[in-house]
UniProtKB/TrEMBL annotation:
Domain of life: Bacteria
Gene3D superfamilies: 3.40.50.880
The organism's taxonomic lineage, starting at the top: Bacteria, Bacillati, Actinomycetota, Actinomycetes, Micrococcales
Pfam families the UniProt entry points to: DJ-1_PfpI (PF01965)
PANTHER family referenced in this protein's UniProt entry, alphabetically: ARAC-FAMILY TRANSCRIPTIONAL REGULATOR, HTH-TYPE TRANSCRIPTIONAL REGULATOR RV1931C
InterPro entries linked: Class_I_gatase-like (IPR029062), DJ-1/PfpI (IPR002818), INH-QAR (IPR052158)
Protein name listed in UniProt: DJ-1/PfpI family protein
Domain DJ-1/PfpI: start-end pairs: 9-176
């Protein structure tokens, strides 16, 4: 899953994405870079490369646009109130489906899984989301096996997490998966993160 230039991770950002859904995994992956032999490259990108206003009002300028993000080994899709228009956006869902074809690993945080479901990427799979949206996830695709007990669900090439801070747990799990438990524990220690 790596290239000669290191492991490439992209975090998609959009208006109304929840701040910690973006910043939590970003912090984990950038802290990992300092400890990793894989030297992951972490970038943020928006649909058109322009700045976005996150759910609680934080303005963010991403690194690039969806057209310029290049090949990724891991795409992280956050949640937040801004997912609601994206769930019904046919062009966006087609783009996400196309990204899935060329991206070995797709991960969602919180209600980002609703967009994955709307794109048909969770059909017949176990998945989770924010606790207040379990019914909505099942309503988008009744074939999804909604896990209401765990903080994240690793189903191989798709990983989904529960709400907000659970994205940090998922990101640490992915560090362990890509590299090893020792490095993941070092990152956890660097961040002084106790977890749930």
């Amino acid at each position: 899953m790596t290239t000669g230039n290191g492991l490439s991770i992209g975090i998609y950002v959009f208006d109304g994405a929840e701040e910690l859904n973006v910043a939590g995994p970003f912090e984990v992956f950038t802290a990992w870079r300092e400890r990793s032999a894989l030297k992951p490259r972490v970038s943020t990108f928006s649909w058109d490369g322009r700045g976005v206003r996150l759910a609680q009002g934080l303005h963010m300028v991403p690194d690039r646009s969806a057209d310029d993000v290049g090949p990724l080994q891991l795409l992280v899709y956050p949640g937040g109130p801004g997912v609601q228009p994206l769930v019904g956006d046919r062009i966006h869902l087609e783009w996400l489906h196309a990204m899935r074809v060329q991206t070995p690993l797709l991960a969602s945080v919180c209600t980002g899984s609703l967009v994955l479901a709307a794109a048909g990427l969770l059909a017949g799979r176990p998945a989770t989301t924010h606790w207040d949206h379990y019914d909505e996830l099942a309503g988008i695709d009744p074939s999804i096996m909604v896990d209401t007990e765990t903080r994240f669900v690793d189903d191989g090439d798709v990983v989904t997490s529960a709400g907000v801070s659970a994205g940090i747990d998922m990101a640490l799990h992915l560090v362990e998966r890509f590299e090893n438990a020792e490095v993941a524990d070092q990152v956890r220690h660097d961040l002084q993160y106790e977890g749930a």
